[in-house]
Design brief:
about 290 residues; about 35% helix; globular; Spore Coat Polysaccharide Biosynthesis Protein SpsA, Chain A; alpha/beta; 2 domains
Length: about 290
């Protein structure tokens, strides 16, 4: 069995779409756990109206998305787990594609391509064009060849029990768990798109003013590979933009790794150029 986990908090306008995209999958041996994280709108009532014996609603006090995901993992009966955000939705063969990829390559993690949807318009997110085991997880992610995005990746439950999500963070709360998993596991990838990531501009434009609740405030560069350090540097660059008043603090905190900033800028410039001329796929040969 596969367990699908949807954390739910005040998503009454889209939770029905997310749930129905799961219930209409070609793969049918699954349970769907909707973890209601103390919603104050009608989200839970909408879930209750959907009748399917594979759908389980679990209510809890509000504690953040990580607490909801961790509770879902604890309650899950499946050997495999796929997360889905309430404002995103699966394509019909999502579970089938991810599960078959993991089983075919005998790995504990599999990822797939997905769509980024903005105002109804979709574009593919990843530039990886071959099904295979990723040779360098962090380099491939950094280059945009694949992305272990929520809804487009499947994990053995035992990994998520070992590397649970940090409940003290509110932004990039899943990063540390993902980094730990990627550092220690082979990942199989398929270029088949399996879900649609719906960008919510109201959420993206929300002001962030608490660096202590952001993974950017607790990055650890020591003893990491060069490609993982580049990913961390990309997050640090975001921190300068999101927390301009904390720039001095961040530069002091990560002063021993500021040499990576010009390297990151140079590489990202090259990546953007290769994307424009549609040559980024050349890196599929190496990573």
């Amino acid at each position: 069995m596969i367990s699908i986990i949807i954390p739910l908090y005040n998503k009454q306008n889209c939770i029905e779409r997310a749930i129905k995209s799961v219930l209409s999958q070609t793969f049918t041996d699954f349970e769907l756990l909707v973890i209601n994280d103390g919603s104050t709108d009608q989200s839970d009532e909408i879930v209750k109206e959907i009748k399917d014996n594979r759908l389980i609603l679990i209510n809890k006090q509000n504690g953040g998305v990580s607490t909801a995901r961790n509770k879902g993992v604890d309650a899950a009966k499946g050997e495999w787990i796929i997360f889905l955000d309430a404002d995103d939705y699966f394509l019909p063969t999502c579970i089938d594609t991810l599960y078959k990829t993991a089983i075919t390559y005998k790995v504990n993690v599999a990822a797939a391509n997905f769509y980024i949807e903005i105002n109804g318009k979709k574009k593919l997110a990843c530039y990886g064009n071959k099904e295979k085991i990723i040779r360098n997880n962090f380099a491939a992610w950094y280059l945009g060849l694949f992305c272990p995005r929520t809804g487009a990746a499947i994990f053995r439950r035992e990994l998520l029990l070992k590397y649970s999500f940090r409940e003290d963070l509110q932004r990039y709360e899943d990063a540390e768990s993902l980094f730990n998993i990627m550092r220690n596991n082979l990942i199989a990838y398929t270029p088949v798109p399996v879900m649609s990531y719906t960008q919510d501009y109201n959420h993206l434009s929300k002001l962030h003013n608490n660096l202590s609740k952001d993974y950017i405030g607790c990055l650890i560069f020591d003893n990491k590979s060069f490609s993982e350090k580049l990913l961390l540097t990309s997050l640090l660059e975001q921190g300068f933009c999101i927390y301009p008043s904390k720039t001095k603090y961040l530069k002091l905190k990560y002063k021993h790794f500021l040499y990576l900033l010009p390297i990151n800028k140079s590489i990202t410039f090259v990546i953007r150029c290769l994307r424009k001329i549609k040559l980024l796929g050349i890196f599929n040969i190496f990573f």
